[in-house]
Amino acid sequence: MSQNVILYTNSQYSSPYALSVYATLLEKGVPFELRTINLATGEHRADDYVRLSLTSRVPVLVTGGFSLSESSAIIEYLEEVYPQPDFASVFPDNREQKARARQIQAWVRSDLGALREERPTTVIFDARNPAPLSPQGQEAAAKLLSIADLLIDDEGSHLFGSWSIADVDLSVMLNRLCANGDPVPEKIKAYIQRQSDRPCVKQWWALAKNIRSI
């Protein structure tokens, strides 16, 4: 496809959901323009942006005359518009593994609210939060680590043998703890490092760090 593709994210590059779409575009090799929205000044509530997003949230993908928000929907759309074999898939080929990847994506977006609040993604590229986790945060962290222990092998390999977009989503959630200095098992540290070293993820966090150095 030759249509111009635009991805909107928040100006701090702190949205893990925008990262997920950004990684999908890079892994597929789809050229795109990255634009930012300042949530602090309310740019996401401007009429023009609301017409694009419907939900007034980031990320938003614009391609041709079509726009779409909500990262899971965007990734599914990109999988259909840029399919194999011409473009890489960001999901496993195996049907059951693909379903599991989607389950993981849905879970990290809908659960663990206390952990997301007390360990925002800014701890990954900016200052740590020195406050201990609340009882609710501890419960969420324990649940996350327990499930990650079931999913991740002793070497900290990709979840399904080869990389998938679910690795980005799960590793970022886990890195909220690891980057903040909260206790994390060694195999999970290895998994986080493996995912953090992937070029699509490194480039995203570099953007976040550059914003803070300006």
Structural description of this entry:
The chain has 214 residues and is an alpha+beta fold. The protein has two domains: 5-89, Glutaredoxin (3-Layer(aba) Sandwich), CATH 3.40.30.10; 95-201, Up-down Bundle (Glutathione S-transferase Yfyf (Class Pi), Chain A, domain 2). The protein is built from ten helices and four strands; from the N terminus they run βαβαββαααααααα. Strands 2-1-3-4 form a four-stranded mixed beta sheet, with helices on one face. The longest helix has 17 residues, at 135-151. This is Glutathione S-transferase. Keywords: Transferase. Residues 5-86 form the GST N-terminal domain. GO terms for molecular function: glutathione transferase activity; maleylacetoacetate isomerase activity.
Average pLDDT number: 96
Tally the helices. Answer: 10
Radius of gyration, rounded? Answer: 17 Å
Helix-strand sequence: EHEHEEHHHHHHHH
How many strands in all? 4
Structural class: alpha+beta
Give the percentage of residues in beta strands: 5-15%
Name the descriptors:
214 residues, 10 helices, 4-stranded mixed sheet, alpha+beta, 4 strands, Glutathione S-transferase Yfyf (Class Pi), Chain A, domain 2, Glutaredoxin, 53% helix, 9% strand
In short:
One of its GO terms (molecular function) is glutathione transferase activity. With 214 residues, the protein is an alpha+beta fold.
SSE inventory with pairings:
Elements: E1 5-10, H1 16-28, E2 33-37, H2 47-53, E3 60-63, E4 66-69, H3 71-81, H4 95-110, H5 113-118, H6 122-125, H7 135-151, H8 165-178, H9 186-196, H10 199-213
Helix pairs in contact: 1-3, 1-8, 4-8, 7-8, 8-9
